[in-house]
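Page 37, continued from 36.
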């Protein structure tokens, strides 16, 4: 396990909420540095099993040497199919710590962070042909407008898109600094960091198809969890959090409550164990600033 790779958020709260049964089968959707996985293993007995997913080859170097542990080097959108390869059709708990790992933000060459000048990359899976650079230089105005409005919730998305199109007409936007220079006229003077974070977030979500992947994963999680099993998810922005809330409330990502055909009453899929999300305390935020936007939600399969 690499603490320098990634500082696990709400670590103990996640383990507590998983309600780990020693002989159960569990899934860590976002292995990263292995912090959550290592603690899950401490609560498992010799019969227990833990499967973890991570598409980033850097994370795959942190593999835990334990006979009860299996790391699957894939996007969690393929959750059900890969578990089936191991003969697993039902699990007792699923944990997801969404978003970007500390390592991905801190590794300048990956292009995730506004702090460094690097090539506009942002691929979690470096075999992915789509990068932030190809989006910024190749998407048309309508496509760009959609991702900045939908994934960044950027108020002046039209002006932002025009600035990008004008800049790339002069020369290709290749690096994070090129992009920041291209959109300087759109960036609010006293909220520069917040604005740029939204721009980078929107690009990253599009590059990695994060919303579609999360929808697929959450839908499969509903099918995989056995009665009494827990879904424990940490999200970092409203788009993710909305999907998690919808699934726990209604059993699907659209938030549409299924009605009983005869009685017209709602069919509950999960018991919501967090009417208000669990948030990190001030001490954790002080140690790990990434935790400040974290929201943990938990559902128990009925």
């Amino acid at each position: 396990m690499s603490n320098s790779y990634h500082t696990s958020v709400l670590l103990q709260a996640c383990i507590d909420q998983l309600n780990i049964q020693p002989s159960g089968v569990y899934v860590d959707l976002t292995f990263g540095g292995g912090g959550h996985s290592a603690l899950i293993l401490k609560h498992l007995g010799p019969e227990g099993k833990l499967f973890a997913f991570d598409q980033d080859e850097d994370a795959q170097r942190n593999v835990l040497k334990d006979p009860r542990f299996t790391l699957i080097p894939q996007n969690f959108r393929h959750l059900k199919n890969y578990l089936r390869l191991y003969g697993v059709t039902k699990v007792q708990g699923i944990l997801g710590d969404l978003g970007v790992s500390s390592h991905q933000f801190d590794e300048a060459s990956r292009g995730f962070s506004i702090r460094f000048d690097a090539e506009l990359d942002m691929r979690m899976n470096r075999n992915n042909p789509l990068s932030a650079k190809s989006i910024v230089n190749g998407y048309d105005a309508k496509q760009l407008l959609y991702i900045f409005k939908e994934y960044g919730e950027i108020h002046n998305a039209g002006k932002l898109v025009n600035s990008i199109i004008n800049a790339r007409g002069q020369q290709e936007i290749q690096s994070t600094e090129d992009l920041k220079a291209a959109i300087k006229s759109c960036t609010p003077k006293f909220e520069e960091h917040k604005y740029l974070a939204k721009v980078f977030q929107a690009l990253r979500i599009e590059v990695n198809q994060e919303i579609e992947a999360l929808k697929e994963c959450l839908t499969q999680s509903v099918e995989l969890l056995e009665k009494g099993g827990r879904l424990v998810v940490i999200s970092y922005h409203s788009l993710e959090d909305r999907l998690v809330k919808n699934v726990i409330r209604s059993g699907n990502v659209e938030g549409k409550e299924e009605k009983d055909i005869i009685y017209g009453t709602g069919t509950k899929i999960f018991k919501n164990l967090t009417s208000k999300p669990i948030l990190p305390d001030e001490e954790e935020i002080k140690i790990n600033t990434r935790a400040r936007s974290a929201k943990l939600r938990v559902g128990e399969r009925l």
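The first helix runs from residue 11 to 18. Flag for discussion at group meeting. The beta strands are 25-28, 49-53, 69-72, 91-97, 225-235, 270-272, 295-301.
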